[in-house]
Amino acid sequence: SESIIRGIILPHHDLAKEIFHSSLSSLKEKQTPSAIVIYGTNHYFSEGPTFTTTTEIQDEYGLENILVNDERINKEHSIQTLLPYLKEYFPNTKIIPIIVSSMYEMESLNNMSNSLLKVLPKDTLYIASVDFSHNSTVESGLQQNKESIESISTFNYQKILDYKDDHMDSPVAISVFMKTMENINAKKWETWLSSHGGLITNNPLLNGTSYVVGV
Questions:
Q1: pTM for the predicted model, two decimal places
Q2: What does the pLDDT look like over 51-82, one tens digit per residue?
Q3: DSSP string, the chain
């Protein structure tokens, strides 16, 4: 039987739109989830409470220990960049946006994961919307991606939570995503893509951002 994909890591950079199309069309061929959770990087309030969602989601699911702030979600490109693509490929799927700040306790990551798993359908897809190495050359970006992929695929939280944005822009979002995968026993990692802005724009000298797509 074809194994079901429970989670995917995607970038949130406009430059990566071809990556969104290819990744989401591959996903759509396999499954149509009834809900999608996006764990997105909280770019503007990184020192605030760990998790923020919208009034609508809070009213519907009554999640615990989560801040409600529609304006932050509406301005946060880790959510907004993905939305049009998700709506195009999964028009009838409920989208649950959660932005994740860099403030965390390991226990709260697990609690958030569990409180979502309790209230959401079994076929929910979880997305970590995270860009990887920042301001890096193609060569060093791809090298950092290799290290990040190694840490993610082996569930090495300690390593991940020590990373700075030379590796990824939200180690905490990646960690809560991985906690969720662990809690539903989805532990088999598959890398779909490791890339860099310099490869996408065909500019090998670009100091840019790297991307990892994997399930």
A1: 0.96
A2: 999 999 999 999 988 999 999 999 999 999 99
A3: -PPPP-EEEE---GGGHHHHHHHHHHHHHH---SEEEEEEE--S-TTS-SEEE-HHHHHHH--SS-EE-HHHHHH-HHHHTTHHHHHHH-TTSEEEEEEE-S---HHHHHHHHHHHHHHS-TT-EEEEE-----SB-HHHHHHHHHHHHHHHHTT-HHHHHH--TTT-S-HHHHHHHHHHHHHTT-----EEEEEEHHHHTT-TT--B-EEEEE-
> Tens digit of pLDDT for each residue in 117-169?
999 999 999 999 999 999 999 999 999 999 999 999 999 999 999 999 899 99
User: Using CA atoms, how far apart are residues 68 and 56, in angstroms rounded to an integer?
Assistant: 9
* Lookup result for tokens 């991606």: 145
